[in-house]
Amino acid sequence: MTTSSPFTRRIVTAAMAMGLGLSALPAFSAGENTVYLETKDGRVTIELRPDIAPKHAAQLKALIRQGFYDGLKFHRVMDGFMAQTGDPKGNGTGGSTLPNIPAEFSQAPFKRGTVGMARSSSPDSANSQFFICLGDASFLDGKYTVVGVVTSGMEVVDKIKKAAPGAPGGAVDNPDKILTMKLAQGAR
Questions:
Q1: Four-point Cα dihedral 88, 125, 138, 130, nearest 10
Q2: Is the four-CA dihedral 142, 46, 156, 68 of positive or negative sign?
Q3: CA-to-CA distance for 98 and 46, rounded, in angstroms?
Q4: pLDDT per residue as tens digits for the range 40-75
Q5: Is residue 50 part of a domain?
Q6: Distance between CA atoms of residues 109 and 104, nearest Å
Q7: Each residue's pLDDT tens digit, 6-47
Q8: Distances in Å between the alpha carbon of 169 and those of 81, 82, 119, 163, 166?
Q9: CA distances (Å), 96 to each of 18, 39, 48, 142, in order?
C-alpha cells in the first residue's frame, strides 16, 4: 500500500492514530463509503465499514441520500466518551421510518474516532442514531456495532458542545448540529 493519494494518506493516518496496523484496514472504494459530516466548526470525514457492518452502512447511506441527518442535533455528548446524533426528536428516543437493523457485532475495537451505532437495550434496535468516540471505549467492544471510523476532522469532533458535568445521560443544552451530511461520491 502506498501513501501517494490523499485518500490513502487519510486512511493510513487514521489507522496509525488509532494504533492499528495497515493489515487491519479494510479495502475501501474511494467515495463509495466516504461520508462528509459538516458542522459549524468544519468537516468530519468518515469511512463507513460495510465489510463488518453491511446492513448498518447501507442504512446510513440510504438516510444520508435522503438528507435525513441535515440539521440534526448532537443531543448526547459526554466529554472523553462520545458524541451522539441521528435522532430527529433530539432527545435519544427517535429514529427514522426505516426498519431497525439486526446487530452486526465484530472484533473491531471502540477507539477514539470509531463510529458506532446507538441502540436501546435490545441489540437489534439500531436505526438512525450513531455516535463518534471521543476516547477509547473498550467496554463497548462486542456489544455495539462499529459502522465506521473518522479519517479526518477529529479536531472538529472535539469542538462539539459537550453536556454540562452531571447532566443526566449526557444531554446537551442548546446542542450543536450537523449542518449537512453527504456521501463523497456525488457530493458537491
A1: -20
A2: negative
A3: 22
A4: 999 999 999 999 999 999 999 999 999 999 999 999
A5: yes
A6: 13
A7: 444 444 444 444 444 444 444 444 478 999 999 999 999 999
A8: 12, 12, 14, 9, 8
A9: 31, 21, 19, 24
The total number of structural domains in the chain stands at: 1
Count of CB atoms within 10 A of residue 169's CB?
Answer: 12
pTM for this prediction:
0.84
Cell numbers for 107, please give them.
Answer: 472484533
Instruction: Flag whether 3 is in a domain.
Output: no
What's the CA gap between 79 and 28, in Å, rounded? 30
Residues 6+ apart with CB under 8 A from 61: 33, 48, 183
| Structural contact between residues 7 and 30, judged by C-beta atoms closer than 8 angstroms | yes
Report the side by side order of strands in the sheet with 76-78. 76-78, 82-85, 130-133, 114-117, 146-152, 42-48, 34-39, 180-183
**In this structure, which amino acid lies at residue 67?**
G
DSSP strands (E only) in 27-123: 34-39, 42-48, 76-78, 82-85, 114-117
Residue 2 falls within a domain, yes or no? Answer: no
